[in-house]
Design goal:
single chain, 280 residues, alpha/beta, eight-stranded mixed β-sheet, three-stranded antiparallel β-sheet
Length: 280
């Protein structure tokens, strides 16, 4: 029986830890508030003892209410990072959220330790390059990008999980049916698919797509299982100033100055074996 995306990602993370043992977890950093108005309110972070940091989206379902009500389901400080990584398969959404952050922290140690793997200059949203005749699928919401796509003459369908958002919009459609992606040539998706465990189903629905990009701060993981399923690009965010980031999270301040966006393109990615065999 084929393994799910989450199972493969956990196995890949364990492989990375076997090749380059990860230090234990130093801390779980939670946002000062949980709102949809800014990135610093939407993501938590797992930090390892060497300062490696992985991000994970927290505004899914009951996760923010649970985190506001009390401490996480277990004290994460001092735990093995690969142990927390296994939480991505846990039915508890809070543990899954922390699990992805741990996977991303472990992955960032590998990715940032291999110069040339991360593309710091390409804008994955710009690569979408919508034009007349394009049929574009968007999984999740990307701010004002929908208007830009429609104004460029492309047809757009947006896939959402919330029934309240479904229906015709100004020049495009919002639907709950992921099969609407079947005739889309270009797909842009949030990385929250990893948290709600719909990566396999969504990518399987992208039957006609020649370009599939998953983008978001939670996309800090090793991309091999994603590329194996047909995705062409993964966009993530790397914490490049640990102290400034931790201060910003603690005070509810913007952390964009301590984080850099990057992308990894399938056609330029050497694969995890090359990364783990590199010096470092």
């Amino acid at each position: 029986m084929a393994r799910s995306f989450a199972q493969e990602l956990i196995a890949l993370t364990a492989r990375a830890c076997a090749a380059r043992p990860a230090p234990p977890v130093r801390a779980l950093h939670l946002p000062a508030s949980f709102t949809r108005d800014a990135k610093e309110s939407e993501f938590c972070a797992v930090e390892l003892d060497d300062g490696s940091i992985g991000l994970s989206y927290v505004l899914l379902g009951e996760v923010p209410q649970r985190l506001q009500a009390g401490p996480p389901p277990a004290d994460v400080a001092g735990r093995r990072a690969d142990e927390l990584a296994g939480w991505l398969l846990d039915p508890d959404p809070v543990r899954r959220t922390i699990g992805l952050a741990a996977i991303n922290a472990i992955s960032q140690r590998v990715l940032l330790g291999c110069p040339g793997v991360l593309d710091w200059t390409t804008d994955p949203l710009g690569m979408l390059d919508p034009g007349p005749g394009d049929r574009i699928g968007m999984v999740g919401w990307f701010g004002g990008l929908a208007r830009r796509i429609v104004d460029a003459g492309a047809r757009l369908v947006v896939i959402e999980l919330d029934p309240a958002l479904a229906g015709p919009q100004d020049g495009y459609e919002v639907t709950l049916d992921r099969n609407a992606l079947a005739d889309c040539g270009k797909i842009l998706s949030t990385t929250t698919l990893v948290l709600n465990d719909t990566v396999d189903e969504v990518l399987a629905a992208c039957r006609s797509a020649h370009s599939i990009a998953l983008v978001g701060p939670g996309g800090g993981f090793l991309p091999d299982p994603l590329f194996a399923r047909g995705a062409s690009l993964l966009g993530g965010s790397a914490v490049v100033d640990r102290d400034a980031f931790v201060r910003a999270v603690a005070h509810g301040e913007p952390w964009s100055g301590s984080v850099r966006k990057y992308c990894i393109r399938r056609d330029r990615y050497p694969g995890v074996a090359a990364l783990l065999s590199a010096p470092g």
